[in-house]
Amino acid sequence: MRGLIGKKIGMTRVFDDKGHMVPVTVVQAGPCTVVQVKTQNIDGYDAVQVGFGERKSKHTTQPLGGHFKSNGVGPKKKLYEFDVVPGFEYKSGQTFHVGLFQVGEFVRATGTSKGKGFTGVIKRHNFRRQRKTHGNGHTERAPGSIGQASDPSRVFPGMRMAGHHGNSRVTVENLEVVKIDVENNHLLLKGAVPGSRNGTVIISK
Fold this sequence. Notes:
By secondary structure, the protein is mainly β.
């Protein structure tokens, strides 16, 4: 398996052999169940679809309920597809947990970042403030010029301005696996993982 679906629990710290403090993010990675094995002949590509988290049947739509039933697994909260490992035979109902990873391994974490709402250019694009004196009005946090006047008489696309900030898909690479708790399916990753507590995180190799 190339990775697992997990849930971000929060951040804490651990100490290494030399007594140095290491900030870590605790992620509940798995257990993940194989729901469907997609093949080139039937689906047009090779992939393995896995599910994470249990869901009640009454909270599952009929199309998804039929999908789970036809593959012989119970309803799942989250679904995600990973690339297949060549030579490994996947079957519906197989379960994978954090034993998939090793201490010292570097992984990739993908999640939805925290939403900041409508923010200005200083917070959104790291602009600096304008000066407060020498004739400047109350525009210390204003963006400044956004283009020319008569030519080209428009604002170019992609101009950095105030707007919606956060709540986007973010991937952080090269996160070191510091510790693995197989009993609780907890994965301790060095550094920060995108998203808020209880947010869905995709951990991949």
